[in-house]
Amino acid sequence: MPNNLPNDFISNLEQIVTDKGLIVEKNEIRPYITERRGRFVGETLCVVKPATTKEVSAVVKLCSDNKVAIVPQGGNTGLVSGGIPFAEDRAIILNLSRMNTIRDLDPINNTMTVEAGCILQTIQDHASKNDRLFPLSLGAEGTCEIGGNIATNAGGINVIRYGNTRALILGLEVVTPTGEIWDGLRSLRKDNTGYDLKQLFIGSEGTLGVITAAVLKLFPSPKEQQTAFLALNSLEDALPLLNMAQSMIGDALTSFELIPRIGIEFSQKHGHRVIDPIEAKHDWYILMEASAGTANSFLPDLFTKYMEKAFEEQWVLDGVLAQNKAQSDSFWLIRENVTLCQKPEGGSIKHDIAVPVSSIPTFIRKANAAVKKLIPGIRPYPFGHVGDGNIHYNLSQPVGMDKQAYLNRWEEVNRVVHDIVIDLNGSISAEHGIGRVKVKENAHYKSSIEIKLMQQVKHSFDPLNIMNPGKLIPSIQPKK
Amino acid sequence: MPNNLPNDFISNLEQIVTDKGLIVEKNEIRPYITERRGRFVGETLCVVKPATTKEVSAVVKLCSDNKVAIVPQGGNTGLVSGGIPFAEDRAIILNLSRMNTIRDLDPINNTMTVEAGCILQTIQDHASKNDRLFPLSLGAEGTCEIGGNIATNAGGINVIRYGNTRALILGLEVVTPTGEIWDGLRSLRKDNTGYDLKQLFIGSEGTLGVITAAVLKLFPSPKEQQTAFLALNSLEDALPLLNMAQSMIGDALTSFELIPRIGIEFSQKHGHRVIDPIEAKHDWYILMEASAGTANSFLPDLFTKYMEKAFEEQWVLDGVLAQNKAQSDSFWLIRENVTLCQKPEGGSIKHDIAVPVSSIPTFIRKANAAVKKLIPGIRPYPFGHVGDGNIHYNLSQPVGMDKQAYLNRWEEVNRVVHDIVIDLNGSISAEHGIGRVKVKENAHYKSSIEIKLMQQVKHSFDPLNIMNPGKLIPSIQPKK
Question: Which CATH architecture does the domain made up of A102-220 adopt?
């Protein structure tokens, strides 16, 4: 508890949110301060769970008056510790999970208004019941909350068609660091009446205010889908294959994922019911999917022509087109297991990078060579959203090496990989964000002018530096 | 000339940009301070035309040191006087037209890097030569410059498929109000490494800095197109017709434009070579277009099925599908003339509004009733981008009324129309921006918290208030 806190701070919080919205018991607090993979345990004064935007506003005002820091939190599924306070923050957790009302769905305008604590899957399901699609989709969708998705500009498997979370947001409701409520819940496709403030809050990781509600874009529900699992002739062939898909299949193309041979092997060894759909072994695979919003869409005809051309050009050596939903699911099961099945192979040093799509093969070859030189026997494990230029460039430890000795080299490996990324004008965090984990690394690569501009924005919104301090950008001194 | 200007200010400017980049003669200045439709003539100290980003930086630094205001300008085609200084601004014009180099085109990454002064049509043509599409398209495309398009977040006729300018920008290079150069020229689809600063500059109408270059998103070139001119059964039927297009045709749908009967009549009366493709007269028409990035795309089959269904549902009473490029051009000629042929009918009071797509019929009916009550005989002329919820709600004067007497009621009519827009959670400037013309009207409708947040952002970037003062948001006092 900060020594300068008034005695009645906790009781004042309780007055705002009642006992249903306040957690002070250590045991009950524990899940809120524990990183989902168990890597970190943070520290907090208490967990506050307001039920309404007005309660959020009152909590933030109280904290602002008392200069107590606030860490906004959704489903606590982030991978960079952006939603967890640490001892030096002397912060409360403002958890939005109780604000989980779907306020509205307009099928003609293709929009849906939801509160920040709605679980992503609940939103997907509600859209689906109304014959609409909310296309954001990622591993944690059963647990993560839309407020967190927006605050981190989440990516996922459909970005190539529908964009990142940023592209799916038409309006926001936000409580500012002084506790004021900004009602920006517009549901318009066009609005040129000033700075687009919502863009600042999207991806700001809770450092500029608390997102309490949002207007989401919806799309027609897919009625026909085509899913293919293709073995590439070479990594480089992924590029013309992608370009041809964009021309021929257009925006019906919804996913274009890269899977390396080692991903198949780990998945078959450690996963459950994972079947390699292609008999011979190949170095690289593409899992691709296309969707149409209508039956009898001609998509199957188009997709067949596309596959024929891919074989003809010899970009693809072998491949299977899913004949039914079960087979399509089995392809996606491989993709999910590629993510999950690294753990049993020991330590993994991870990167979430993006480069221009045209530089993907160069990046992978350069990075592989560099890390193998650094740690002989290291096992590169690059997979992910190649259509977006986004690779989860993970590195499994050499067989037989001591796990901790390997993980101790995390930062050293990061630097080598990130140097290559920056050299290719890339990003060291494509979709996971910066949080607490990557603040230093990010500041190392950003220009001083960019850091300064970000700090200016931060300071103008939050002069007391109470909103998620220490996250995203290097802290500046708060105003006295 | 501001009385506190040092004598050598102009000669210092000339040192930076040489005599090729400096205009001080009144006659030569005149086109730069004249609104394109001749509505206003502004006033400026001089016109500076730098040739490089470094020159822009040096000019801005000199102005900042001397507290001289700067109005950034592109092709000077804006409709709200955002690019013209006025006497009280004591400002120079910083015209970007000489910075017109296309720096790069990457066909695999589908990106193009251009300087701010490139004319939109030049960019479209260069993309096209490389078998790619840059989809931003609007009336002024032969004259307007991309820097201005970005600074105003321009819309146009392809927004339903490709989004506003904001959605087409991956990176920016900006000179800040202190003359520093921010190199944010990334060409990434994903980048979560901090606040997305470019979003602030996009649509900020030159009030936060000078955009000097940008990375644009490209798309596959259209290889097949379908263009249809359809007569609606009723205005309300536009909505299910649009929704069905989005499901059946998906993102192949690139335009969905509303045209009223009066638009056809004015176009036939005053336009050149305008032919009404449908024999009988109808109240409302839709001009729609769809594109595919490949030949033999099945788009014609899909489009035919769509048309059949539209007739079957009786949303469409009559319609013509263009049989060739010439016929498609003739449909678009109507659309262009709808914009142009209002002038010969006398005074026109204009609005550029957006509402949720589902509220379009309600808006038009309510606004028509309200303005007819206010000015009997007034002739509503609503047209435009109904697929984006964006209507150019123009109002031609009653036949025989004195033009000036009619135009004198501009603000009164605006207020009546905008009240209805706001009541429907709409926007009073969908794509034209705020500039100088709509500052007061916008401030009337925005919440005080939103105005305050915008002013905070403005002040943090430009504490001297030298960047395009008096535009976009109500000015605040500069720091002493």
Answer: 2-Layer Sandwich (3.30)
